[in-house]
Prior knowledge:
single chain, mainly alpha, Tetracycline Repressor, domain 2, about 80% helix, globular
Amino acid sequence: MNIRQDTMPSCVAGSRARDRVRLFFDLFKLRIGLVIGFTAVAGAAVTSGPAQSGWDILLLAVAVTMASAAAGAFNQYVERDLDAHMQRTRRRAFVTGRLHAGPAWLIVIAAVGAAGVALAAWRFNATAALYTFAGAFTYGVVYTVWLKRRTRWNIVIGGLAGSFAVLAGAAAVTPDTLGPLPLAFAIILFLWTPPHFWSLAIACHADYEAARVPMLPVVVGDERAAYAVFVSAIMLVASSLVPLLFGMGAVYLAAAVGGGGYLLWTSARLALLPTRRHAMVNFHASLIQLTLLLVAAIADSALNA
Protein backbone atom coordinates (compact mmCIF):
# COMPACT_ATOMS: atom_id res chain seq x y z
CA MET A 1 0.00 0.00 0.00
CA ASN A 2 2.80 2.40 0.88
CA ILE A 3 4.54 1.68 -2.41
CA ARG A 4 1.39 2.40 -4.34
CA GLN A 5 0.79 5.67 -2.50
CA ASP A 6 4.38 6.73 -3.04
CA THR A 7 4.30 6.06 -6.75
CA MET A 8 0.91 7.52 -7.57
CA PRO A 9 2.04 11.19 -7.59
CA SER A 10 4.90 10.44 -9.98
CA CYS A 11 2.57 8.42 -12.22
CA VAL A 12 0.05 11.26 -12.31
CA ALA A 13 2.80 13.79 -12.98
CA GLY A 14 4.18 11.60 -15.75
CA SER A 15 0.75 11.30 -17.33
CA ARG A 16 0.26 15.06 -17.22
CA ALA A 17 3.66 15.63 -18.77
CA ARG A 18 2.85 13.21 -21.58
CA ASP A 19 -0.48 14.97 -22.14
CA ARG A 20 1.29 18.33 -22.42
CA VAL A 21 3.83 16.93 -24.88
CA ARG A 22 1.04 15.37 -26.94
CA LEU A 23 -0.90 18.63 -26.88
CA PHE A 24 2.16 20.56 -28.06
CA PHE A 25 2.91 17.94 -30.73
CA ASP A 26 -0.66 17.97 -32.06
CA LEU A 27 -1.17 21.73 -31.89
CA PHE A 28 1.88 22.48 -34.01
CA LYS A 29 1.22 19.52 -36.33
CA LEU A 30 4.75 18.31 -35.78
CA ARG A 31 4.18 15.10 -37.74
CA ILE A 32 3.81 17.25 -40.83
CA GLY A 33 6.42 19.74 -39.65
CA LEU A 34 9.11 17.10 -39.23
CA VAL A 35 8.40 15.75 -42.72
CA ILE A 36 8.69 19.27 -44.13
CA GLY A 37 11.97 19.78 -42.26
CA PHE A 38 13.27 16.50 -43.66
CA THR A 39 12.21 17.65 -47.13
CA ALA A 40 14.42 20.72 -46.73
CA VAL A 41 17.33 18.47 -45.77
CA ALA A 42 16.77 16.48 -48.95
CA GLY A 43 16.75 19.72 -50.93
CA ALA A 44 20.15 20.60 -49.48
CA ALA A 45 21.49 17.09 -50.10
CA VAL A 46 20.72 17.09 -53.84
CA THR A 47 22.15 20.59 -54.39
CA SER A 48 25.68 20.92 -55.72
CA GLY A 49 27.79 23.25 -53.63
CA PRO A 50 29.86 23.50 -50.45
CA ALA A 51 29.44 20.57 -48.09
CA GLN A 52 27.18 21.33 -45.13
CA SER A 53 28.16 20.32 -41.61
CA GLY A 54 25.93 18.14 -39.50
CA TRP A 55 25.23 21.18 -37.34
CA ASP A 56 24.08 23.18 -40.37
CA ILE A 57 21.82 20.35 -41.52
CA LEU A 58 20.26 20.19 -38.07
CA LEU A 59 19.68 23.96 -37.96
CA LEU A 60 18.16 23.87 -41.44
CA ALA A 61 15.71 21.17 -40.35
CA VAL A 62 14.88 23.07 -37.16
CA ALA A 63 14.30 26.37 -38.99
CA VAL A 64 11.95 24.90 -41.60
CA THR A 65 10.18 22.72 -39.03
CA MET A 66 9.54 25.74 -36.80
CA ALA A 67 8.05 27.73 -39.67
CA SER A 68 5.92 24.76 -40.70
CA ALA A 69 4.83 24.20 -37.10
CA ALA A 70 3.68 27.81 -36.83
CA ALA A 71 1.65 27.42 -40.02
CA GLY A 72 0.12 24.22 -38.66
CA ALA A 73 -0.90 25.86 -35.39
CA PHE A 74 -2.30 28.85 -37.26
CA ASN A 75 -4.30 26.42 -39.40
CA GLN A 76 -5.89 24.97 -36.27
CA TYR A 77 -6.56 28.43 -34.85
CA VAL A 78 -8.33 29.62 -38.01
CA GLU A 79 -10.20 26.37 -38.68
CA ARG A 80 -11.55 25.71 -35.22
CA ASP A 81 -15.10 26.29 -36.48
CA LEU A 82 -14.61 23.72 -39.25
CA ASP A 83 -12.84 21.28 -36.94
CA ALA A 84 -15.86 21.24 -34.62
CA HIS A 85 -17.93 19.61 -37.40
CA MET A 86 -15.41 16.92 -38.28
CA GLN A 87 -15.03 13.62 -36.46
CA ARG A 88 -11.32 13.55 -37.24
CA THR A 89 -10.59 16.98 -35.77
CA ARG A 90 -13.28 17.73 -33.20
CA ARG A 91 -10.95 16.85 -30.32
CA ARG A 92 -8.35 19.46 -31.22
CA ALA A 93 -7.39 21.82 -28.42
CA PHE A 94 -8.98 25.00 -29.78
CA VAL A 95 -12.24 23.11 -30.38
CA THR A 96 -12.50 21.45 -26.97
CA GLY A 97 -11.44 24.56 -25.06
CA ARG A 98 -8.23 23.09 -23.66
CA LEU A 99 -6.63 26.12 -25.29
CA HIS A 100 -8.36 29.49 -25.51
CA ALA A 101 -8.23 30.90 -29.04
CA GLY A 102 -7.28 34.42 -28.04
CA PRO A 103 -4.75 36.99 -29.33
CA ALA A 104 -2.03 35.58 -27.08
CA TRP A 105 -1.89 32.41 -29.14
CA LEU A 106 -1.55 34.40 -32.35
CA ILE A 107 1.48 36.11 -30.81
CA VAL A 108 3.00 32.75 -29.80
CA ILE A 109 2.37 31.26 -33.24
CA ALA A 110 3.83 34.30 -35.00
CA ALA A 111 6.88 34.20 -32.71
CA VAL A 112 7.55 30.54 -33.51
CA GLY A 113 7.29 31.17 -37.25
CA ALA A 114 9.42 34.31 -37.08
CA ALA A 115 12.07 32.44 -35.09
CA GLY A 116 12.26 29.76 -37.79
CA VAL A 117 12.62 32.32 -40.56
CA ALA A 118 15.16 34.33 -38.54
CA LEU A 119 17.21 31.19 -37.88
CA ALA A 120 17.33 30.47 -41.62
CA ALA A 121 18.43 34.05 -42.32
CA TRP A 122 21.04 34.11 -39.56
CA ARG A 123 22.64 30.73 -40.21
CA PHE A 124 22.25 30.63 -43.99
CA ASN A 125 21.04 33.53 -46.11
CA ALA A 126 18.10 35.72 -47.05
CA THR A 127 17.04 33.47 -49.92
CA ALA A 128 16.72 30.43 -47.64
CA ALA A 129 14.77 32.56 -45.18
CA LEU A 130 12.47 33.80 -47.96
CA TYR A 131 11.67 30.26 -49.09
CA THR A 132 11.14 29.20 -45.47
CA PHE A 133 8.67 32.04 -45.00
CA ALA A 134 6.98 31.34 -48.35
CA GLY A 135 6.29 27.73 -47.40
CA ALA A 136 4.67 28.70 -44.09
CA PHE A 137 2.73 31.55 -45.69
CA THR A 138 1.43 29.29 -48.46
CA TYR A 139 0.05 26.74 -46.02
CA GLY A 140 -1.06 29.14 -43.30
CA VAL A 141 -2.56 31.95 -45.37
CA VAL A 142 -2.91 30.97 -49.04
CA TYR A 143 -4.30 27.49 -48.34
CA THR A 144 -5.97 27.91 -44.94
CA VAL A 145 -7.41 31.41 -45.20
CA TRP A 146 -7.91 32.03 -48.93
CA LEU A 147 -8.44 28.71 -50.69
CA LYS A 148 -9.68 25.90 -48.47
CA ARG A 149 -13.25 27.16 -48.07
CA ARG A 150 -13.53 28.50 -51.62
CA THR A 151 -12.27 26.04 -54.24
CA ARG A 152 -11.78 22.37 -54.98
CA TRP A 153 -8.23 23.22 -56.08
CA ASN A 154 -7.26 24.27 -52.55
CA ILE A 155 -4.74 21.54 -51.85
CA VAL A 156 -3.28 21.67 -55.37
CA ILE A 157 -2.10 25.24 -54.90
CA GLY A 158 -1.40 24.57 -51.23
CA GLY A 159 1.05 21.88 -52.33
CA LEU A 160 3.55 24.64 -53.06
CA ALA A 161 4.30 24.70 -49.33
CA GLY A 162 6.31 21.47 -49.65
CA SER A 163 8.04 22.75 -52.78
CA PHE A 164 9.27 25.83 -50.94
CA ALA A 165 10.83 23.58 -48.28
CA VAL A 166 12.94 21.89 -50.96
CA LEU A 167 13.97 25.28 -52.31
CA ALA A 168 14.86 26.49 -48.81
CA GLY A 169 17.23 23.54 -48.46
CA ALA A 170 18.76 24.24 -51.86
CA ALA A 171 19.19 27.95 -51.09
CA ALA A 172 20.96 27.08 -47.84
CA VAL A 173 23.71 25.55 -50.01
CA THR A 174 23.73 27.86 -53.03
CA PRO A 175 21.48 30.92 -52.67
CA ASP A 176 22.25 32.44 -56.07
CA THR A 177 21.52 29.52 -58.41
CA LEU A 178 18.83 26.86 -58.60
CA GLY A 179 20.04 23.63 -60.15
CA PRO A 180 17.90 21.09 -62.00
CA LEU A 181 17.85 18.53 -59.19
CA PRO A 182 16.31 20.70 -56.45
CA LEU A 183 13.89 22.10 -59.02
CA ALA A 184 12.89 18.55 -60.00
CA PHE A 185 12.29 17.66 -56.35
CA ALA A 186 10.27 20.84 -55.82
CA ILE A 187 8.01 19.73 -58.69
CA ILE A 188 7.77 16.24 -57.18
CA LEU A 189 6.59 17.71 -53.87
CA PHE A 190 4.04 19.84 -55.70
CA LEU A 191 2.66 16.83 -57.58
CA TRP A 192 2.72 14.64 -54.45
CA THR A 193 0.14 16.69 -52.60
CA PRO A 194 -3.01 15.94 -54.68
CA PRO A 195 -2.96 12.11 -54.52
CA HIS A 196 -1.99 12.29 -50.85
CA PHE A 197 -4.68 14.69 -49.63
CA TRP A 198 -7.41 13.69 -52.07
CA SER A 199 -7.08 10.15 -50.73
CA LEU A 200 -7.59 11.47 -47.21
CA ALA A 201 -10.50 13.57 -48.43
CA ILE A 202 -12.19 10.48 -49.89
CA ALA A 203 -11.73 8.64 -46.60
CA CYS A 204 -13.10 11.64 -44.67
CA HIS A 205 -15.77 12.61 -47.19
CA ALA A 206 -18.51 12.86 -44.56
CA ASP A 207 -16.37 15.13 -42.39
CA TYR A 208 -15.61 17.60 -45.16
CA GLU A 209 -19.23 17.55 -46.30
CA ALA A 210 -20.43 18.27 -42.77
CA ALA A 211 -17.98 21.17 -42.50
CA ARG A 212 -18.95 22.41 -46.00
CA VAL A 213 -15.37 22.33 -47.24
CA PRO A 214 -15.24 21.96 -51.04
CA MET A 215 -12.66 19.20 -51.15
CA LEU A 216 -12.66 17.42 -54.53
CA PRO A 217 -14.62 14.30 -53.40
CA VAL A 218 -17.35 16.50 -51.91
CA VAL A 219 -17.67 18.48 -55.15
CA VAL A 220 -17.41 15.71 -57.79
CA GLY A 221 -18.01 12.51 -55.79
CA ASP A 222 -15.68 9.77 -54.61
CA GLU A 223 -15.53 7.88 -57.92
CA ARG A 224 -14.35 10.84 -59.98
CA ALA A 225 -12.03 11.96 -57.20
CA ALA A 226 -10.49 8.47 -57.05
CA TYR A 227 -9.87 8.64 -60.79
CA ALA A 228 -8.20 12.03 -60.28
CA VAL A 229 -6.02 10.44 -57.59
CA PHE A 230 -4.93 7.74 -60.04
CA VAL A 231 -4.12 10.25 -62.80
CA SER A 232 -2.21 12.51 -60.39
CA ALA A 233 -0.32 9.48 -59.05
CA ILE A 234 0.81 8.68 -62.61
CA MET A 235 2.05 12.25 -63.00
CA LEU A 236 3.83 12.05 -59.65
CA VAL A 237 5.58 8.77 -60.37
CA ALA A 238 6.63 9.98 -63.82
CA SER A 239 8.09 13.15 -62.29
CA SER A 240 9.93 11.09 -59.65
CA LEU A 241 12.00 9.51 -62.44
CA VAL A 242 13.24 12.85 -63.78
CA PRO A 243 16.05 13.20 -61.18
CA LEU A 244 17.65 10.12 -62.76
CA LEU A 245 18.41 12.34 -65.76
CA PHE A 246 20.42 14.69 -63.55
CA GLY A 247 22.68 12.35 -61.61
CA MET A 248 20.61 10.28 -59.19
CA GLY A 249 21.88 6.70 -59.08
CA ALA A 250 20.86 3.13 -58.35
CA VAL A 251 19.67 3.71 -54.79
CA TYR A 252 17.29 6.40 -55.93
CA LEU A 253 16.17 4.33 -58.92
CA ALA A 254 15.22 1.44 -56.65
CA ALA A 255 13.24 3.72 -54.34
CA ALA A 256 11.48 5.54 -57.18
CA VAL A 257 10.47 2.29 -58.91
CA GLY A 258 9.56 0.45 -55.71
CA GLY A 259 7.65 3.25 -53.99
CA GLY A 260 6.14 4.52 -57.22
CA GLY A 261 5.01 1.07 -58.28
CA TYR A 262 3.33 0.50 -54.94
CA LEU A 263 1.56 3.87 -55.10
CA LEU A 264 0.32 3.20 -58.63
CA TRP A 265 -1.05 -0.17 -57.54
CA THR A 266 -2.92 1.25 -54.54
CA SER A 267 -4.16 4.21 -56.61
CA ALA A 268 -5.47 1.90 -59.34
CA ARG A 269 -7.24 -0.20 -56.73
CA LEU A 270 -8.79 2.95 -55.25
CA ALA A 271 -9.98 4.06 -58.70
CA LEU A 272 -11.65 0.67 -59.21
CA LEU A 273 -13.16 0.55 -55.72
CA PRO A 274 -13.25 3.98 -54.01
CA THR A 275 -13.89 2.82 -50.45
CA ARG A 276 -12.66 4.43 -47.26
CA ARG A 277 -10.29 1.54 -46.58
CA HIS A 278 -8.67 1.73 -50.01
CA ALA A 279 -8.43 5.52 -49.68
CA MET A 280 -6.53 5.22 -46.40
CA VAL A 281 -4.24 2.56 -47.86
CA ASN A 282 -3.44 4.94 -50.71
CA PHE A 283 -2.95 7.82 -48.28
CA HIS A 284 -0.31 5.81 -46.42
CA ALA A 285 1.20 4.55 -49.68
CA SER A 286 1.86 8.15 -50.72
CA LEU A 287 3.68 8.73 -47.43
CA ILE A 288 5.78 5.62 -48.01
CA GLN A 289 6.58 6.70 -51.55
CA LEU A 290 7.70 10.18 -50.50
CA THR A 291 9.76 8.89 -47.59
CA LEU A 292 11.56 6.41 -49.84
CA LEU A 293 12.30 9.15 -52.39
CA LEU A 294 13.70 11.56 -49.82
CA VAL A 295 15.79 8.98 -47.98
CA ALA A 296 17.13 7.58 -51.26
CA ALA A 297 17.93 11.06 -52.57
CA ILE A 298 19.95 11.84 -49.45
CA ALA A 299 21.68 8.45 -49.49
CA ASP A 300 22.47 8.66 -53.20
CA SER A 301 23.88 12.16 -52.85
CA ALA A 302 26.06 11.03 -49.92
CA LEU A 303 27.37 8.06 -51.91
CA ASN A 304 28.20 10.21 -54.90
CA ALA A 305 29.79 13.04 -52.90
